[in-house]
Amino acid sequence: MKKRENFPIRKHANTILKLHKEGKNIPEIADILGCSDNGLYYFFNQNNIEPNRYKRSKYQHNKNFFNKINSHEKAWVLGWFYSDGSNQYPKCIKLALAEEDKHILEIMKELFKYTGPIPCYLDKRSKEPDKARWQKMCEFTINGKELGQQLINLGCMNRKTFKLKMPTKEWVPEKFLNSFILGVWEGDGSIKLRKMGNHYNSSIDITGTKDLIYNLKKYSCSILSLPFGSIEPHKTSKGIFTWRFSGNHQVKKFLEWAYKDCKYRLNRKYQKYQIICDNYNYRNEKIVWLRKNEDVIIDLYQNEDISARCIANNYNISAQSIIKTLKRCGIQIRCGFLIGDANKKIETKGDLPWLKS
């Protein structure tokens, strides 16, 4: 039956109570009357009536998974449910992701020892007709109230979007917090790479409630001793805040710490992290070489009258890096320092590991 919006539940109170006495649970009553589950939950709560238990799932799972957060893997899963998950206590818990991220749901299935399937479906991603687009989604759902109650005990309640707070040490011991933060970031955060010449500049953001985001930032900064970025109100969601910071050094140090203990990760974001690491090592090789070979740069620039641009092109280093090296050594930069035979070939000196590949 198609469910009606603004269904007059009070007018059908006697029918609802009759169905309840017959042993029907809330989803069954909702299907019979064509109303929403949420409206019935509200009706039962207002009248202090205990809903009938849901039928037991035919699939097996670990019903005590969230009883205690005693591993990095459990902390990581909790982070995912804090960010992208849904606790529909006492009905079920669920996590829906785009098909490209289905491997995360497969990991959840393995961790929960769940024997059921992970169905996929087409979901309309925008309610505006002119922006309508469909995306294939996959959903991990476990029926029953045990896990939902355990999540509530860990601060992850029904309709959590504007209520979440930083978990206490009793909920998530401090030694597992980096994996919890990893799960939160993978679910409700992003990593961006912007190509700038021969290298990338990276940035990270994490979105959530004010309490959660401010405490995530405070804890991460205290552990890593870095002044990580700023927190700003979300542009479209009132009561939601975004923590954002940039710079390859900060991003690399944060993710290195977040990834170090949990063996699971979201592939597409981890691939970007690997690009940052490669780029970071690549740039460091050049910085170290420049400091060791300042005399080579000075000799080419002063004695052989070769332009900074020409030196940069031959050594595959930015002209600005050459100029900064010369200035640091007290060399006066010629007017029109980028003018000259930029494509002129010169003999490179010293060990250049980035040119070997």
Give the key terms:
Endonuclease I-creI; 357 residues; 43% helix; four-stranded antiparallel beta sheet; 8 strands; 4 domains; alpha+beta
Describe the protein's architecture and organization.
By secondary structure, this protein is an alpha+beta fold. The chain folds into four domains: 10-46; 72-186, Endonuclease I-creI (Roll), CATH 3.10.28; 187-276, Endonuclease I-creI (Roll), CATH 3.10.28; 293-356, no CATH class. The protein is built from 14 helices and eight strands. Strands 1-2-4-3 form a four-stranded antiparallel β-sheet. A four-stranded antiparallel β-sheet has the order 5-6-8-7. Strand 7 and strand 8 (240-246) form a beta hairpin. The chain is elongated and about 100 Å long. The N and C termini lie far apart (64 Å).
